[in-house]
Amino acid sequence: MKKQSLRGAVSIYIVVFLTLVFGVITLGFIRIIMNDAVETTNTDLYRSAYDSALAGIEDGRIALIKYHDCLSQGAVGKSGASAGSCADIIYEMEKGANEDDCDVVQRMLGREQADQNEVIVQEVQSSNQAGNATELAQAYTCVKITENTDDYLTTLTSTDDNRIIPLRSDEINSVKAVEFSWYALSNGGTNYMGDKFKSNNVSDAYTPPVIALDLWQTDTNRDGRCGGADANSPCYSLGELSVNNSNSSGTDRAMLVFQPVTSGGTNFVSSGEVLDHADKYDNAPIKVNCNPNGSFYCNVVIELPDTFRHQQRAESTTFLRSALLYERPNTDISVTLCKGVSSGSCTDKTRFTGVQAAIDSTGRANDLFRRLETRIELVDLYYPYPEYELYLSGDGNALEKRFYVTNNCWQSDNGSGSGCSNSANVSGGISYSDE
After folding, report:
1. Same structural domain for residues 160 and 126?
2. Which of 298, 302, 297 is nearest to 277 (CA)?
3. Same domain, 268 and 413
């Protein structure tokens, strides 16, 4: 009896132990399943809120198109105008911009609003439908449109490596400098520049690219040089786009090439240096100190020189051209207009006028919200811009090339170019075919 009792007790202990083990395992599986279910639900809500915000952005685009279409027709905003008319669209857009209104897009497009002034994207689905869709209740709750932005934002890529940036502002003639930033931290991935940037043998380090920045500006016709043209209209000759003026105090064009470094460079380019880079004799790359502090790796303040004839800048012909030269990773850039400069930094910033519109949209799915902002170009920046001085096209075309070895061969006087007396033709003419 004693041995049988012991065997029975052992069996009970084994059963209890196994029950506890299997219970713990079962509870662990249940917890994993529940966590996965919650994560899946949150992911669905997150993506649905994102889609709702995108719907708001698309409605914002439509509203902008209608607004500018009405402006092009010469319409004027009017309070109390019939809904959907150009007078109503212009009035609502300008009123909403002044009041920072969340509901301007909804009113302009006549979107049906729910109780909380939100636009339903997807109603709550019936309970007999499968999945988490029954709880989404998608809507966008707030869409704001700003046409005068604090900065200009864009992205250069390997296939789209040039961008024309109009410097348009109601205070264009008060702008003393531009702050140019490139290569955001998000472009650099997880490997910061730091010590890896200093090492040439680290293949996985993300390094900011060399970037070129062209400045173009012209005078207005305030001195009457362009005849009967309006005093505020652009006025220049082709010669003014290739050289400084006679006393090297003004220019209408300069090309700056920025080379990222970790130390030994600068973050400020004076107007005198910009003038130097309008001259073919002095156009060396400028080393810019870059570090991963802030939103961008690289930042430089560029003091603008005076125009060629020292008149006011023409707003319609003042712009920058940014371009990637060699390695072409995706590169975010930012441009800010500065009305003052102190110790190499902007002391007073002003807004761009009619260059980019910012659409700020908040989307909702159930009780989860997401907020997105996008930029819409308000001017055509995608017209063909020559990346090279000479193109060959078609089959069988040949280019006659002549090479010269000389010192300071190119001479220019107000746009009139001539060869040098000490040049020597060392090639005798070389034919080149694109075949």
Report:
1. no
2. 302
3. no
Amino acid making up residue 149: T
Cα first-last separation, the chain: 104
How many independent structural domains does the chain possess? 3
Which residue type does 384 have? Answer: P
Distance CA 154, CA 181 (A): 11
Q: Clarify whether residues 229 and 119 are in a common domain.
A: no
* pLDDT of 150 higher than 60: yes
Shared-domain flag, residues 237 and 140: no
Question: Which structure tokens are listed for 223?
Answer: 């001195």
Short-list 317, 430, 355, CA closest to 154: 355
| Residues 311, 219 contacting (CB under 8 angstroms) | yes
The encoded tokens of residue 293 equal 């502090």
For 361-390, write each residue's pLDDT tens digit.
999 888 888 999 999 998 776 666 666 666
- Shared domain for 257 and 327, answered yes or no, is yes
Q: In which order are the strands placed within the sheet that holds 319-324?
A: 162-166, 319-324, 211-216, 253-261, 286-289
The reported pTM is 0.75
The radius of gyration of the chain from alpha carbons, rounded to an integer in Å, stands at: 32
What tens digit of pLDDT does each residue of 270-304 get? 998 998 888 666 678 899 998 877 789 899 999 99
Q: Which of 120, 146, 172 is the last residue of a domain?
A: 146
Helix (H) or strand (E) holding 401: strand 398-401
Mean pLDDT of 301-316: 90
Residue 412 lies in domain: 398-433
How far, in Å, CA of 184 to CA of 298, rounded? 8
Verify that 156 and 142 share a domain, yes or no: no
**Is residue 136 located within the same domain as residue 161?**
no
Could you write out the DSSP letters of every residue in 340-396?
Answer: EEETTEEEEEE---SSEEEEEEEEEETTEEEEEEEEEESS---S---SSS----SSS
What is the helix (H) or strand (E) element at residue 108, kind and residue range?
helix 104-109
- Residue ending a domain, among 89, 124, 146, is 146
- Asked if residues 145 and 359 have their Cβ atoms less than 8 Å apart, the reply is yes
